[in-house]
Amino acid sequence: MTSPATPTGVTAVVERLLFALVNAQLHGPVHPRVREACADVATRVAEHCAPHGTRAVLLGVAGDQIVVDGRPVLGASLFAKRLLQRIESRGAGGVELDASVTADDVVGLVDVLARRVTTPDLVAAAHELAQRGVRGIKLVPPYAGGADAEASAGSGGAAGDGAAGDDASVGPGTEGERAVVALHQSTVDLLQGLTIAACQGRELDVAPVSAIVDRMVASLERDAGFLHALAHYPEYDFFTFGHSIRVGLIAIDVVRRSTDDPALVHRVGCAGLLHDVGKSLVRWDVLHKRGPLDADEKREMQRHSVLGAGILLANKTSDPLAVAAAYGHHCDMCGGGYPRTCGEYEQGLVTRLVKICDVYEALTAVRPYKPSMTPARAFRTMLGMKGHFDEELLAHFIRSVGVYPAGTRVRLDDGSVGRVVHQTEDLRRPVVDVLEVDGGPVAGEDRRRVDLSVAPVDGPSVVVRALDLAPVGTATPAGA
What we know:
There is one protein chain. This protein is of the alpha+beta class and about 475 residues long. The protein has 3 domains: about 140 residues, no CATH class; about 230 residues, Orthogonal Bundle (Hypothetical protein af1432); about 60 residues. It contains 18 helices and 11 strands. Strands 6, 7, 8, 9, 10 and 11 form a 6-stranded antiparallel β-sheet that branches. The protein has a 5-stranded antiparallel β-sheet with strand order 3-2-1-4-5. The N terminus and C terminus are likely disordered.
């Protein structure tokens, strides 16, 4: 069971800066939410610099990574494509925030980054910052070395938030893993764009969702373990994008093992990814409240299913299966749940599957107000929710996901650490990629894949001893 956590160090600086940028695009730079986030950035920068005696935080950009002290910070990079693109659009290779930076300085930076430009011009951007009275921030030139610097940033190995020693993270080590990081970033950026469009009352362009789902399906075929692990990496999720990504991935993974129809797999993925699009129109204070909701707040939250269906119906190209899933993923098999209908309402198969994936993800994910459940405990909880789910489909879901789902880090009884790739007929003996042996990491090209359900020719069988709770990309904690 994992405890709730909040980002710290450089990761927190990036998260709050991105939060301010997205809200500035939604509401303008003078919105109180933008101002509050910018003040938090200034506070976090000062807190980060003080114990290390540094004068500034330099957030570098190399390809698709946030880089600090020449090392990529994976956790800070996964949700930050929009920020990375806006920095690069100004002809810059990063942002340096002085230890004495003020909230007004950060507001000025966000205002500059939120404005679209057609030609990268670092000098012009610096002039804009100066015009806004920004003194504690400067945009720095791109890294010398271009592609070589990017390759170095993504070369893997132990890395973190520079000398700070917090938010330990690594860059993806193989070309395939770098492609998965890029996919995750593109998916988040797409969902951010859809949220902005919905909040501004514009019709959603759902065509890019189709392309993203195609990439998800292909990536799951290549390396389901790393994609699932990466989707669970961030513990901050200020627009619930991570939830939607995980629901989409789980739904795709379950259905692709049940059918040979690629069109159905694709449609299920789109439905899973868009099932919560209506939350973009739910009041912010309700959507992100950390405690229990009162009756009025519950009614406001429950509007998201109707709002989501309406958003998708406004686009004539939306798939009816996605509309149905957005509308009905909180309806129960026994007629309860929401929204309440005047007559009989029958959930389709895709909606029933998305509902199961939605509840499972919510139970097993970390939230600010709760720890996560293990998959086994989540299964027991869901099996006890009589009338909520299609029981036959839930049983199939449990067989497909397994006790150790794809992406889960597990410690084996021979002392090695692996990452689950996919299930076998034995729910407790999945196929794993071995990541660590004798306490040390195994390079990507040297990793071996082991089917724990197959008895070895020589030597004893290896089984999973326990879950390993270290996040993807980190070394196993000592004594874990």
